[in-house]
């Protein structure tokens, strides 16, 4: 079956559909009929509009939602800086000046679990490009947490959309729009500004985050593929309305704002949305539902055929960010070197491994919870062991990636690395080149020799 078998059973209900107009109410009649902002919304609720794009964005790009809540989100005390020694998402005023852009291929050992911190304080900026203050670029994070967030805390990022790739554990996420349960081999996207709280029902968690500072993720165009395949819109799951009726407890709202952490107090739950409707909301997707496309004659197609979500730039066919996966699949090409070929790319490629073994890196250095970065025009490809095996193997139909799921954050931007990513994490593999490509030897033979 084209779904993942999860160890942790689902506990919530969802609506289905990517970029679909959804409406949901936890109390029957809480949604106004036709009008968005009546003088007296049902049940004494407040109407609040959440805008993910400008009001005048083209209709096909416009993302807005109307929320009907017990108290509006504005009802809080002023935000104050709340710096933390473990919150390393760039506390400097100009974080984009702190990246180190280097041409070397980089690979990291698995990042450690940290049972001392919660979701917010586990976020470590590894790499990125651009500047959230002008809504341009991306940030790449590692998270590793061992504690649930405080029961009366909520977090949001004003900097961009969070695409969360869970590698280990389970995320139970309460959002303003309802609840999400996220397990390994599922991803979730929490758009800019949406408040949420994460608890850890199965213990420590670890994974990766791609923060998109500009635009929003969408499904890639299919072109001659047709109307279906890759990630199908019907397989994305969206929360149904659920709310907390708490107007007497002190809550803290944590905001990531230009890479800094701020906190504000309020006397009511931020998760008090009784009903909502619109196009701007969090969602999740089971990577096991991806419908893989590949060659059935010869040659290895470009990895763009594995794109789940994309965030286009202003230049057609070029993405600020692509989320690409390498799922289990059949290879049947004739007279073809089947792993990805050696190449240099104008795009930057940050890869991670959720579980299993990636079929282009068989030597063992690319491990679950680890990562690699092949920046703009940095040459890379199969390691020597993989090349040797793929060059001599009998070319029968073969199943690859069984029990595995690798992914890639790809960007047209030159990606810089933070001091934490290069030094403080102590996970960079110094022998990456020596293990992967230095062992390759010349195979050229002149005709007649």
Automatic annotation (TrEMBL):
<feature type="domain" description="Homogentisate 1,2-dioxygenase C-terminal">
    <location>
        <begin position="289"/>
        <end position="442"/>
    </location>
</feature>
<comment type="similarity">
    <text>Belongs to the homogentisate dioxygenase family.</text>
</comment>
<keyword id="KW-0585">Phenylalanine catabolism</keyword>
<dbReference type="GO" id="GO:0006559">
    <property type="term" value="P:L-phenylalanine catabolic process"/>
</dbReference>
<dbReference type="Pfam" id="PF20510">
    <property type="entry name" value="HgmA_N"/>
</dbReference>
<dbReference type="Pfam" id="PF04209">
    <property type="entry name" value="HgmA_C"/>
</dbReference>
<dbReference type="GO" id="GO:0006572">
    <property type="term" value="P:L-tyrosine catabolic process"/>
</dbReference>
<keyword id="KW-0223">Dioxygenase</keyword>
<protein>
    <recommendedName>
        <fullName>homogentisate 1,2-dioxygenase</fullName>
        <ecNumber>1.13.11.5</ecNumber>
    </recommendedName>
</protein>
<feature type="binding site">
    <location>
        <position position="358"/>
    </location>
    <ligand>
        <name>homogentisate</name>
    </ligand>
</feature>
<feature type="active site" description="Proton acceptor">
    <location>
        <position position="300"/>
    </location>
</feature>
<dbReference type="InterPro" id="IPR014710">
    <property type="entry name" value="RmlC-like_jellyroll"/>
</dbReference>
<dbReference type="InterPro" id="IPR011051">
    <property type="entry name" value="RmlC_Cupin_sf"/>
</dbReference>
<feature type="binding site">
    <location>
        <position position="343"/>
    </location>
    <ligand>
        <name>Fe cation</name>
    </ligand>
</feature>
<feature type="binding site">
    <location>
        <position position="380"/>
    </location>
    <ligand>
        <name>Fe cation</name>
    </ligand>
</feature>
<dbReference type="InterPro" id="IPR005708">
    <property type="entry name" value="Homogentis_dOase"/>
</dbReference>
<keyword id="KW-0408">Iron</keyword>
<feature type="domain" description="Homogentisate 1,2-dioxygenase N-terminal">
    <location>
        <begin position="13"/>
        <end position="287"/>
    </location>
</feature>
<keyword id="KW-0479">Metal-binding</keyword>
<dbReference type="InterPro" id="IPR046452">
    <property type="entry name" value="HgmA_N"/>
</dbReference>
<feature type="binding site">
    <location>
        <position position="349"/>
    </location>
    <ligand>
        <name>Fe cation</name>
    </ligand>
</feature>
<dbReference type="GO" id="GO:0004411">
    <property type="term" value="F:homogentisate 1,2-dioxygenase activity"/>
</dbReference>
<dbReference type="GO" id="GO:0005737">
    <property type="term" value="C:cytoplasm"/>
</dbReference>
<keyword id="KW-0560">Oxidoreductase</keyword>
<feature type="binding site">
    <location>
        <position position="380"/>
    </location>
    <ligand>
        <name>homogentisate</name>
    </ligand>
</feature>
<keyword id="KW-0828">Tyrosine catabolism</keyword>
<comment type="pathway">
    <text>Amino-acid degradation; L-phenylalanine degradation; acetoacetate and fumarate from L-phenylalanine: step 4/6.</text>
</comment>
<dbReference type="GO" id="GO:0046872">
    <property type="term" value="F:metal ion binding"/>
</dbReference>
<dbReference type="InterPro" id="IPR046451">
    <property type="entry name" value="HgmA_C"/>
</dbReference>
